[in-house]
Design brief:
CATH topology of the domain at 1-48: N-terminal domain of TfIIb
Strand content: 25-35%
Bound molecules: zinc ion
CATH architecture of the domain at 1-48: Single Sheet
Strand order of the largest sheet: 1-2-3
Radius of gyration: 13 Å
Shape: globular
Structural class: alpha+beta
Distance between the termini: 25 Å
Number of strands: 5
Number of helices: 1
Largest sheet: 3 strands, antiparallel
């Protein structure tokens, strides 16, 4: 059985190592790229963790959202 998940990538450098290690004073998580250290608060989303295989990761990279649709 497979489950659909979304993968968060850094738009600055393309890294998949996006994490939350700080919160704003008003309780919002700050998404931070562990590769290039860019960070920004997000109001209505958070992260979960799980292992996915290389095939699924490549498929996620191939479908990165772009303005006007998904890149293929
Ligand atoms: Zn980055």
């Amino acid at each position: 059985m497979s489950n659909y998940v979304s993968v968060v990538f850094c738009r600055n450098c393309g890294s998949r190592y996006v994490d939350i290690d700080e919160w704003t004073d008003d309780g919002r998580p700050v998404f931070k790229c562990r590769s290039c250290h860019v960070k920004e608060p997000v109001s209505h989303f958070t992260l979960g963790r799980g292992k996915i295989g290389n095939t699924e990761l490549l498929a996620a990279r191939d479908t990165i959202a772009k303005r006007g649709g998904y890149e293929k």
